[in-house]
Amino acid sequence: MSAAAILPRRNVSRIYALEAKYEFLKLWRIPAFVLPTLGYAPVFYLLFGFAIKGPDRALRAVYLLATYGAFGVIGAALFCLGNGVATERGQGWMLWKRSTPMPTSAYLAAKAAVALAFASILVAVLFTLGATLGGVRLPLATWAELAAVLIAGAIPFCAVGLALGYLAGPNSAPAVINLIYLPASLLSGLWLPIHMLPRVLQNVAVWLPPYHFGQLALRVLGLAREGGSGWVDAAALAATAVAGLAAAAVLMRRDDGRTYG
Amino acid sequence: MRIEPIESKSAPPAELLGAVKRYGAVTALAGVDLRVRRGEVLALLGPNGAGKTTAVQLLLGLLPPDAGTARVFGRDPRRPANRVRLGAMLQISKVPETLRVGEHLRLAASYYPAPLPLAELVAVAGLAGLEERPFGKLSGGQRQRVLFALALAGGPDLLVLDEPTAGLDVETRRSLWTAIRRLADGGRTVLLTTHYLEEADALADRIVLLGGGRILADGTPAEIKARARGRRVRCVTVLPAAELAAWPGVIAARQEGAAVELLTAAVEPLVARLLARDPGLRDLEVSGAGLEEAFLVLTAPAESEVAA
After folding, report:
1. Run of H or E residues at B68
2. What is B6-225's CATH superfamily?
3. pLDDT at B3
4. Within its chain, how far is the Cα of B66 from the centroid?
5. pTM to 2 decimals?
């Protein structure tokens, strides 16, 4: 006998919608979240993309649009999921949510949806800067394709963020995330073009998921490295998503019933 | 056609059968049978570490039992959809602070098929006028009332309150008691945990005393008090309290200025021994123990019973 037979039906799609809406509002009202998430990548882009003059300025403005786009999107995904989950575990808020009939998937889907929303806003900000101050001119289809790749690229990093959210302690989560996020971004060529890094670091980069994300975005612009493959990049990101979700599932079980403070 | 399954009519709101839960080497619940009856206010009473919160977490589906079963209205609470008739207030420090009271309540209400109307919820929890206030800008008492309202949002048949008044000032505690009592009078079943005896006594129809992961006593507040034949023995003696505490039959010993105060379930053998060991003993007084002491007697290790 299903519960639906004895009780008035609740509107499950409404739970998903409201959960996402309030998750967004919750974060949108925290300047300490919004400013770094939407601010760092554009500031770096302004600085390295076209504030520094030089003959390669036009190329830089295009190239770094892809890599700082990837950098910013990864940050939005890792912090929305990782920091959000770690904090709410710590407060016991997640425990309360799990005592309600809310589907767990609604909680996680809301966080992922909000990460994608922040990724979309970030991409819009970067594109606006590129098209105006940076003088970047691209066919409309290329803009659209780059936006799609950048926003979709948030998904595997949402999975990683989720795992980090269950791995890190409530107070240490931001530090743990930054400790992984910032070096991995640098080594993956998201701050400086990969060919400017020492050869040995370039060899390390191919093992890092952000590298493949960056390359996938650069490929849209025809600026990916020689000898790479879009399929390999996509497969690496898919594997990252699967590994992140698997790790999160294991860590989630470990967290069952734990309370803090 | 809607068919009401028999189990949902006869099944108790909450039930633990032989529930065992261990955390590593620590046994939080050592085979507990507990049945919450429809319409009653049941207080799970016990000191910290007695297993109260674990029992609640099993019933809310937050944890699976290692052995035995947990059921709510005859169903497995581990499935989210089986929790639609429950509402819980847990010991949590914070909820997202940038969301407003009304937003929190609307979201919580959306989880349930037959939620309380927002206006009613706000009135019952005493949150009128605070709907637009972010949670982070509320006082401690107001926050606790929001947590209470969140538990009530779904119009639950079973309300589970884990230490609902911990850390509250007297006034807020009293107003929460009134609200809980009113809900119970309205036909809702309430399961609450507390380590305040006063609270269990004031609210509960039935008290289940938990200690060391086992049920030590189960009865009305009056029965619980009667069962604990605890007595307080007070005297001025040269015997140090620390030594007396180790005597058989002594549940607690405390130095009170020149006097010592002893708690025991067996007065006569204790007094005889005291007089034998300290002929100069004076100001001997024996009095009935309060609920606080009754509680200590019931939760004391079994050896004190042997001595009795």
Report:
1. strand B67-72
2. P-loop containing nucleotide triphosphate hydrolases (3.40.50.300)
3. 47
4. 22
5. 0.83
